[in-house]
Design a protein that fits this description.
mainly alpha
């Protein structure tokens, strides 16, 4: 996980393929640390399905403060896992997911549908 976190940059509106791959590699390292094949497979499949929404949300720049917060969350996740702090890791991961690109894109799509009356 530490190796995957090295050089990981928060995603900006026009990330390179290398940045997207590095981001996925980091999250994959977290899944792999669980040693739970069912969880790993499920999360990888969800990541694949959510890519289009993640890319959609990248079109809207959340700002430097939000990108800095994501970087802090990544660092904190690594430290919690390394220390065996499962409660801390769970808390950080919940916050990380709630403000993830996929979650915010889903929220925007849901609100756009509501505005259209669909």
């Amino acid at each position: 996980m530490r190796a995957a976190a090295e050089g990981l940059a928060s995603l900006h509106p026009h990330p390179s393929v290398e940045q997207l791959v590095a981001h996925r590699r980091f999250h994959g390292a977290i899944y792999t640390a669980s040693h739970n094949d069912l969880l790993i497979g499920t999360l990888e499949a969800l990541w694949d399905k959510a890519d289009r929404y993640r890319l959609l949300d990248l079109r809207t720049d959340p700002g430097q403060d939000a990108r800095d917060q994501k970087a802090k969350e990544h660092d904190a996740l690594v430290e919690c896992v390394a220390l065996g702090d499962s409660a801390g890791e769970a808390d950080i991961m919940r916050k990380h997911i709630d403000t993830s690109l996929g979650a915010t894109a889903g929220w925007r799509l849901g609100h756009a549908d509501a505005a259209d009356g669909t």
